[in-house]
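Subgroup meeting minutes
Present: P.N., E.W., G.H.
Scribe: E.W.

1. P.N. recapped why we're keeping a running log of single-chain structure predictions: easier to compare across weeks, and new members can see raw inputs and outputs side by side.
2. G.H. added today's entry (493 aa).
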Amino acid sequence: MLKTNHLFPLLGLALITLDSCTSSGSSGSTSSPDKQTVAQNSVQEVALTEAQLEKARTNYASYCSGCHGEQMEAFTDRKWKHCSSAENLFAAIKHGYPEEGMPAFEQTFSDQEITALVAYIQEGIQNVKQYDFSEEATATTVYTSEDLRYRLDTVATGMEIPWGMAFLPNGDMLITDRNGAFYLLPKGSRQLQQISGAPEVLAQGQGGLLDVELHPNFTQNDLIYLSYSAFKKEGEQTLSTTAVMRAKLEGNRLTDQKVIFEAQPWARTRHHYGSRLEFGRDGMLYVSVGDRGQHHENAQTIERAPGKVHRIKDDGAIPADNPFSNEKGAIASIWTIGNRNIQGMTIHPSTGAIWTNEHGPRGGDEVNIAERGKNYGWPVISYGINYNGTVLTELTKKEGMEQPLWYWVPSIAPSGMAFVTGNRYKGWEGDLLVGSLRFQFLSKLKMDGDKIVSEEKLLKNIGRVRDVKMGPDGYIYVAVESPGTIYRVVPVE
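Output recorded in log:
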């Protein structure tokens, strides 16, 4: 729950998930007896004074809104894993659920402040509004940017969280839904067709069916690639990791499925999977893997896969020229290190370089170029701080670690990204588009060569933007969450 800028929809899924819970005393609650005792001794029905209300509002905006929405949108239509009583909310805020991405705030807030925050959240949840953009007459709504006017056409609805998009050579679209569904949208149609044979996923926290990418020679081999949260049982625990499956697309089904990548080690956490896929012009597949919420153990060592960009051949084999392929104990697929959670990846249309964006904690979201063997600093250097307000690191620069090309403070929770190509968008040519989950807009970064010189915010309040792609028809496509909707951006003369 309360993180401020950062991940996507449910990074702070600590309080909300698809598991159910009926009451604070139910067997479904995973709160420990100590946590429940503290909560029962501390929480009482409160009527907030104006001063307490303002303080609670400030605390929510600073610490909680990044994951749960400025207007508590993420609480809408969710079931509560750890129950939703005042006592359970108090325990979750005070002690957290770290394995689910929810930090503890006992060093940040007093018990009185937590009590006020609980009351503020419970009151706010009653007033949450769900915005359904799919029914809006978007074709008649004209937006104005610095360079051109444009409208939105609704392309597809009926999804929950459309996480990744890819276009087939004939203009059909492939769409992943984080809940595990995989869709084909025929060109010119608004009727989604489900594709069978997708991998089984752990659709919890930030996990699920994530990105989709075509093989560069798809027209000859029909191969596609899916990233997802794989899982396995180990004793009583369910462990998960970022995995990549290769399969052949035959009509509306996948065949010849083969898992070609699994990030080691597996973990109990349910967040920071990374999972963006991009084929480079070298024919290699680039895969982002988040730090899984274990940054000190993972991000700066080449002996563990999380917190990295990986580079593999189209069959999962390791390229001989990878930077650490000959180092003892190293994960040979590693291409870059020191990455927190890359949620956007694309190719520069002129240089062919792999560009990425990644989530910072409270502040410090970054845009980088993923270059061979380089260290991007996490968690040694950062422009952000911990979610609970404590200092993560005093350093923003260090020799041997890369500086971002652009960074955001506060965090916007960046998602998919794409360069504007073609000539449909006058004045936008070559600019970089980045979705914002937290603030629900599309960021357009003005480019000067490899330098980002300014930002313009487009499509404000459209919803949590999960992905953005250039279609083969030269139009920009934007995927928005809950309700899952895909829009086409159409210039207006």
